[in-house]
Amino acid sequence: MKNMNSKILMGATLLGGEIFTVAAASAAVQPAPEKQNRKSEERPPIVVIMTDQQTARAMSCAGNPHVATPAMDALADDGVNFSRGYCPYPLSGPCRASLVTGRMPYEVGAFDNDIRPHEEDMQQGIGNRMAAAGYECLYAGKWHVPEVNIPETGTGFRKISNLDDPGLASACDKALGEYDGRKPLFLVASFLDPHEICEHGRFESLKYGELDSYTIDDCPNLPRNFMPSTYEAEALELEHRSSPRYHDTYTYTQDDWRRYLYAYYRLVERVDREVGRLTEVLKRHGIYDKAVIIFLSDHGDGVAAHRWNQKWALFEEAINVPLIVKAPKGEGLTGVKNDEALSNVGLDLYATVADYAGVKLDTERYRGRSLRPVVEGRQTGLHDEVFVETLLSGVGIRGWSIIEGRYKYVLYQWGRNREQLYDLEEDRGEMLNLAVDRQYAPELQRLRRKMYDWGVKIGEKKLVRNLKHFVEKDK
């Protein structure tokens, strides 16, 4: 059966996605209890495990020979590994605002790490909604919406740990020991790593200790897409130059880039060990087999592709993130890699948690889709396209992307070569910009139109203005 499921869900065709909005509410009013379609005692525990700045292919179960992630691999063995999960925005604060509210960062006003989402959206946040639905909501680790640590009140969660990767499993162990089981459980465990690559790149001290010594011979080779693509967006070069604190690799040699990759994969292994400790805690408390477990990261990392570190850019390495869903034992597929279902994790997480909790969402405002039907083998695809947005904050340039079918379209607000079109089946590394090739003009115009329509739908005036002349010219 496992092999048959794998054959069913493996696919060359890449589908895409929509997204969802949140029911607006007064900032002073907590969300009313949602209509439930399952009895409370039948609703499963739900556990969300999150890393920070982990690109999708930084797992050994993703075929990466440079990293060993036994804990993540074990979750994939027990569930479905979605290879086409995308973040809504490649930066922690805006992405986490989306994860909490179920809306795109633009819709909740979260453009950067220090911006608080609209209060009415936070009142309808996932913790408040799950608490209103009768769940015991616990939160451990990094929050960053926008505070690094979750506030003591107002989110619907009970804080059981501040940011503390080495102590997170123990904090969850203690909290679960005190959990009386009268309410169904919703637990979020949020780790920092491999985010420490930011400090490593700047030659700063690492929060959780320095890496063991190594030589250049221990380091991975450079990726095939190490060099810039053809007709690469000028916006990226301008951003690189303007932000030396974040893009501190401007003096890097090729060997320095190899060292960067080595350090990054060791930090992934560091957090994988903590994920393993946490899953052992869940097993000791009898929760693991009963629970829906969703593993993801908030965004990826440049990992030397196109000489890029950090995030912000709309390259695959920065926006494609790990996404694994394990259903309660006996209620979902196991050991399956799904290459077909496109997901926007910031939005679909909200819908998936609500689905398993028996909470019915307003589909006019929540455009996310639950991953549950795919996990249970009732369908293989999810969305028709997904949208990703960004802000290159050093130079103030907005950017947008749509991934649909085999093609990916990218638009930056200004600068030369501000449009990119890539064939992700033939050119996963995004080395050949097809936007300048006349034979791909129909695909380019079709995706422009889809992105324009998306901008109209969510009221994104800058996006609409940047595409209006293309759309009008085509009439």
Word description of this protein:
Helix content is 32%, strand content 15%. By secondary structure, the chain is of the alpha/beta class. The strands form three sheets. It has an eight-stranded mixed sheet with strand order 5-4-6-1-7-9-2-10, with helices on both faces. The N and C termini lie far apart (51 Å).
Question: What best-fitting shape do the alpha-carbon axes yield?
Answer: globular
> Helix and strand succession?
HEHEEHHHHEEHEHHHEHEEEEHHEEEEHH
- Write out the strand line-up for the largest beta sheet, numbering strands in chain order: 5-4-6-1-7-9-2-10
Please indicate the percent range of residues in DSSP E strands (runs of 2 or more).
Answer: 5-15%
Assembly form of the protein: single chain
**Biggest beta sheet summary:** 8 strands, mixed
What is the CA-CA span between the terminal residues? Answer: 51 Å
Q: Can you count the beta strands? A: 15
Mean pLDDT: 91
What's the Cα radius of gyration?
Answer: 21 Å
